[in-house]
Amino acid sequence: MTPYLLAKFCQGLLAAGLTLLFLRFSPLSLPVMAPVELTTPVSLLGREMTALWALAGGYALFSGKRGGKKG
Predict the structure, then answer these.
(1) What is the pTM of this model?
(2) For 2-17, what is each residue's pLDDT tens digit?
(3) Which residues, at least 6 apart from 43, have a Cβ–Cβ distance to it below 8 Å?
(4) Rounded mean pLDDT, 35-45
(5) Is 43:49 a contact under the CB 8 Å cutoff?
(6) 4 and 10 in contact (C-beta within 8 Å)?
(7) What is the SS3 assignment for 55-71?
(8) In whole angstroms, what is the distance from residue 58 CA to residue 61 CA?
(9) Which pairs count as long-range contacts for 28-32, CB under 8 Å and 24+ apart, including other chains?
(10) What percent of the chain has pLDDT above 90?
(11) What is the largest CA-CA distance in the chain?
(12) How far apart are CA 43 and CA 51, in angstroms?
């Protein structure tokens, strides 16, 4: 159990260090709870919505019941 806990501790230190390094070169420009104004209206045909529709369609196609009738 000791090697596992030591590895998880090292992973946490590495993640904290990488986060600090990333924030040093790319600081946050807005506080977490700052109000945000939309510059473009939300539409059902935007890139993000198209990606969500594609994911939903793929899920609907590939998550269906497999096989035929059972006995």
Answers:
(1) 0.39
(2) 999 999 999 999 999 9
(3) 49
(4) 68
(5) yes
(6) no
(7) HHHHHHHHCCCCCCCCC
(8) 5
(9) none
(10) 25
(11) 64
(12) 13
d(CA 19, CA 27): 11
Which amino acid, 46? G
CA 3 to chain CA mean position, Å? 30
66 or 71, greater pLDDT: 66
Q: For the chain, how big is the Rg over CA atoms in Å?
A: 23
Question: What φ, ψ does residue 68 adopt, rounded to 5°?
Answer: -100, -160
- What type of residue sits at position 31? P
| Token output for 52 | 């969500």
Q: Which two tokens stand for residue 13?
A: 């230190």
